[in-house]
Amino acid sequence: MSKTVKKSGRADRQVDSKIETLKTRSVAIDSRIETLEAIPPLMAPDSVQPKLLRTLEAITECNHAVISVTDETELFREICRIIIKVGGHCMTWIGLAENDDRKTVRAVASAGFEDDYLDSVNITWDDTPRGRGPAGTAIRTGQPCIARNILTDPAFAPWRAAAIKRGYASSFSTPLEANDEIIGVLNIYSREADRFDEDEVELLRGLTSSVAYGIAALRARQARETGIVRQELVINILDRLNRPSTEADSIRDVLQMIHDHTGFEAVGIRLEKDDDFPYYETLGFPANFVEAENYLCTRDDDGKIIREPDGNPYLECMCGNILCGRFDPSLPFFSEHGSFWTSSTTQLLASTSKEDRQAHTRNRCNSAGYESVALIPLHTGEKVVGLLQLNDKRKNMLSSELIEFFEGIATSIGIGLARYVAEEALLRKSHDLSKRVKELSCLYNATYLMQFPEVSIERVMQEIVEQFPPSWQYPKITCARITLNEKTYTTTSFKETKWRLTADIYIAEQPVGSLEVFYLEEKLDDFEGSFHLEERNLIDTLASQIGGFVERKQTEEELVQANDMLDSEREALREKNITLKQLLDQIESEKKQIGRQMQSNVNRIILPLLRKLEIGVDKSRVDYVRMVEQNLSEIASPFVSQLETRYAALSPRELEICNMIKNGMSSKDIALTLNTSEGTVRNQRKSIRCKLGIANDSANLQTYLQSI
Question: pLDDT > 70: what percent of the chain?
Answer without folding.
Answer: 80
